[in-house]
Amino acid sequence: MxxxxxYIIAMVACVxxxxxxxxxETAFSSYNRTRIKTLAEKGSKRASLVLKLSExxxxxxxxxxxxxxxxxxxxxxxxTVMFVKIYGDIGATISTVVITxxxxxxxxxxxxxxxxxxxxxxxxFSAPIIRFxxxxxLPVNFLFTMWKKFLSLFFKDKGDDKMxxxxxxxxxxxxxxxxxxxxxxxxxxxxxxxxxxxxxEEILTHRVDxxxxxxxxxxxxxxxxxxxxxxxxxxxxxxxIDNIVGVLHIKDFYTKDGITDKSVExxxxxxxxxxxxxxxxxxxxxxxxxxxxxxVVLDEFGGTLGIVTMEDILEELVxxxxxxxxxxxxxxxxxxxxxxxxxxxxxxxxxxxFFDVKTDSDSSTLNGWIAEKLDKVPEKDDNFxxxxxxxxxxxxxxxxxxxxxxxxxxxxxxxxxxxxxxxxTE
Length: 426
What we know:
This protein is of the alpha+beta class. The chain is built from 18 helices and 14 strands. The two termini are 64 Å apart.
């Protein structure tokens, strides 16, 4: 037995080295980069080394794979020699079975499972050793680098490795399910990701809801409008709402001595005009740059479509912002079993997501979609069916729908089959 001690010790050493390389590969491929970067900024030299090695991942990976293959082949060779000496002709077969099982359990599966649970700790532990091996295997790594460049001539990179918006949203869902972030943080991240595609027409306050005054209004009328509207800023128009000429701030209208003696034209500020397709992200930067809180949205004819405020934009990121003067509105209020009273100023996306329906309408708000489905000016008690929803107009104002009652009915077998086909297609 003593004559085989060398073989046994050598094979155990090879299996330990195989476990090290396998665990290192898993650790470097799954560690949390933000966590390591935070440790590096706090002064951890090993964390800094991990980041430095990861910058050239190809060289790191080739070093790990070279080392792992060398020790695995060595373990297999030593095992074959030892078992052939013991069992003769069948020794090679026995060696193959034993070494394969041992390497698989102790050199691959077990170390990778452990490293997966503690990737940052193991990456920092192995970093100095891997750096030394990279230096030792520098000539071999150089040959592999040249080989990779040669292969790249035949396999071109399409450059489509950037994460799409859908992939980012899926990543947020996964992180939230793991418990790394809570619901509010998840919603904030989703809003931020989708913010880049948001357009002014999707978040504007429609012209019929705008509080505005004529440039010829008396001081008493202006004071009364500030008092009743409870807004700090009012739009000023000349002749009609399609000709906005300024924005009047309550701080400019009232002075320490009371109502200002200056005319409206003297104290109002020049408004910002934008097209309805302008992105909310660029509008936010523009409002910040020009130190303004309101932008007037124009339609294709140059008329006033509505306004977008700084608050409207911020609400898309952080959710509804209420102050002590706001009337809190619920988009969905359950009034019975499967019955909801809905606010028709909501977006169509919110409506479709809540009731799990799909529509190819171009309308951005529920109010516009209802008018489109009715194909006329909506009136109270107008009713129509859509998929498994029974929708009835309950309140209108200025020829638009304020609220509607939505009853959820049981979907037909055909509708269920269609939804199943849609999900399989997706």
